[in-house]
């Protein structure tokens, strides 16, 4: 009898729910098979199995539905994606703040939470009136607040706020998202040897699709504002897929970012399994973030011709003077920071969602010592110490 993570059954479930069969371009079945095989052997409880399988089926449904929209409207693939501004950095380094400030400028475009969660509308939608996906996403947001308050406090996702596009990478099944919520040793190590080009091709395709939808609703912008900590390990692929992009690299003391990331991952693991080895979660997160930052620094070392298209910003500076730091980005990309744009940013700062207090977290809870983190990130401190709070202890 087939298990819940049987590949043919999962594919068939998505096709049955959408009454569609065309997956479109991109060979995603191989990565998906590796992921499903590891899920099948993971120590998941019944709730975890349901959540994770449902998430995969949803990703597949979006792929099917998006492909049908593109079949009906092939002009979608003619949408030019102008060089974006991409905010990168470790989790809790201020990436969300910078993205949402930039996205407040009406000259820019972003993917909102409701667009990320359900990238493809139902096939009978005619782009008139209020998009029904907004209400669906708002209901999902409310349900998350109610049923998973700790998760929402650590990693809130708002339907009407600019959101990171990591979901589009995850939908290609070449992503580090799954390892954040389950112990997947084989998939985790397998990913380190893979070419993520198909994931970035899928991201580009989905941005074209979202942009086409925005145009149908009468919305136009000059540049995308993207954001995801996941891009940090793949800056070379990001640049290859989006030539001319400008990168905003956020920095913060790894002692803080590692503890926060481990806390989020442990919370996700606890949603899917009855027993969570928090020390293993901490060790894996330290390893992953060290690996990610090493790759980012190596890539940037080879960018002698491109460093003027990267703006480095420290978390403390962004919090103390957000408009001033954003102005540095505008100067770097050669776009004037207009009074209208600055006013929109200040209104967003005044009215932005007030998040609940995050649960306390510290390194020892995840089997880590501050000195251990300092040692792993010694080169990072050496290179970016001027942007990092408390860098003197490095």
UniProtKB/TrEMBL annotation:
The name this protein goes by in its record: Sulfotransferase
Keyword Calcium on entry: no
Entry GO MF terms: transferase activity
Keyword hit for Transferase: yes
Pfam family, one: Sulfotransfer_3
InterPro entries: P-loop_NTPase, Stf3_sulfotransferase
PANTHER family named in the record: OMEGA-HYDROXY-BETA-DIHYDROMENAQUINONE-9 SULFOTRANSFERASE STF3, PAPS-DEPENDENT SULFOTRANSFERASE STF3
UniProt superkingdom: Bacteria
Keyword terms: Transferase
Organism: Mycobacterium scrofulaceum
């Amino acid at each position: 009898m087939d298990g819940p993570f049987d590949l043919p059954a999962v594919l068939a479930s998505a096709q049955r729910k959408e009454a569609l069969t065309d997956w479109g371009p991109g060979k995603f079945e191989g990565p998906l098979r590796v992921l499903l095989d590891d899920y099948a052997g993971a120590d998941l409880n019944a709730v975890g199995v349901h959540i994770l399988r449902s998430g995969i089926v949803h990703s597949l449904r979006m792929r099917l539905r998006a492909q049908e929209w593109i079949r009906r409207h092939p002009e979608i693939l003619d949408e030019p994606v102008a060089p974006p501004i991409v905010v990168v950095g470790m989790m809790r380094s201020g990436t969300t703040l910078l993205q949402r400030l930039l996205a407040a400028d009406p000259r820019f475009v972003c993917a909102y939470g409701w667009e990320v969660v359900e990238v493809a509308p139902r096939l009978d939608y005619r782009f008139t009136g209020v998009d029904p996906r907004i209400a669906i996403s708002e209901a999902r947001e409310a349900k998350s607040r109610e049923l998973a308050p700790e998760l929402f406090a650590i990693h809130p996702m708002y339907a009407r706020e600019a959101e990171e596009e990591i979901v589009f990478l995850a939908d290609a099944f070449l992503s580090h998202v799954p390892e954040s919520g389950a112990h997947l040793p084989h998939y985790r190590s397998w990913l380190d040897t893979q070419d993520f080009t198909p994931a970035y091709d899928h991201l580009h395709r989905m941005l074209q699709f979202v942009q086409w939808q925005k145009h149908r609703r009468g919305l136009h912008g000059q540049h995308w504002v993207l954001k995801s900590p996941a891009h940090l390990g793949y800056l070379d692929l990001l640049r290859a897929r989006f030539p001319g992009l400008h990168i905003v690299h956020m920095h913060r003391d790894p002692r803080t970012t590692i503890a926060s990331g481990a806390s989020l991952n442990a919370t996700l693991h606890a949603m899917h399994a009855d027993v969570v080895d928090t020390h293993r979660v901490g060790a894996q997160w330290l390893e992953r973030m060290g690996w990610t930052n090493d790759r980012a620094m190596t890539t940037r070392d080879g960018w002698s011709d491109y460093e003027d298209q990267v703006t480095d910003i420290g978390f403390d500076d962004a919090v103390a003077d957000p408009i001033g730091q954003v102005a540095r980005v505008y100067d770097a990309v050669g776009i004037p920071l207009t009074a209208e744009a600055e006013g929109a940013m200040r209104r967003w700062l005044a009215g932005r969602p007030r998040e609940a207090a995050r649960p306390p977290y510290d390194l020892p809870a995840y089997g880590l010592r501050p000195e251990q983190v300092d040692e792993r990130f010694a080169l990072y401190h050496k290179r970016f110490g001027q942007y990092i709070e408390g860098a003197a202890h490095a």
